[in-house]
Amino acid sequence: MVAHATLVIVWNLVGVWLLSNNKPALGPTATVIGAVVFALFIIAYLYSYSKGLKKVFVSLVTLGALLGSFAVYGALTKAPSLWPSEFWRYAGIGVNLLGVLGFLLVLKKSK
Q1: Domains of the chain, residue spans
Q2: How many Å apart are CA 48 and CA 22, to the nearest integer?
Q3: Are 64 and 99 spatial neighbours (Cβ–Cβ below 8 Å)?
């Protein structure tokens, strides 16, 4: 979960940096706000886990799995021209599939 959120942060920040240098972002989303939101997710994951707030933790993990699933769906259904190359399109799919898998494993283990 934390690894996936960290990769999403890096993806967004690299995309913002590329855009600021008049180059295409790695994908259709690249915002500082996105990076901040996922940094807050990391804090919330760790806090809820450390404090034993199981319902909050499971809710956050479920939300993470849904967001990753939506990202994969979007990458498979949106115009390929939104990515600078097919490599980056599939790299984004890979990052998010790993995230979804990680979230599902955490959900299974937390039952």
Answers
A1: 2-109
A2: 40
A3: yes
**Is the pTM here over 0.85, yes or no?**
yes
Question: Are 106 and 1 contacting, i.e. CB atoms less than 8 angstroms apart?
Answer: yes
pLDDT, mean of each 10-residue run, the chain (111 residues): 92 96 93 96 95 95 94 95 95 95 91 72
- Closest to 39 measured CA to CA, from 72, 6, 11, 73: 6
Cβ–Cβ < 8 Å for 26, 7: no
What's the token pair of residue 88?
A: 């980056």
* DSSP for 39-100, written as a single string: HHHHHHHHHHHHTT-HHHHHHHHHHHHHHHHHHHHHHHHS-GGGSSSHHHHHHHHHHHHHHH
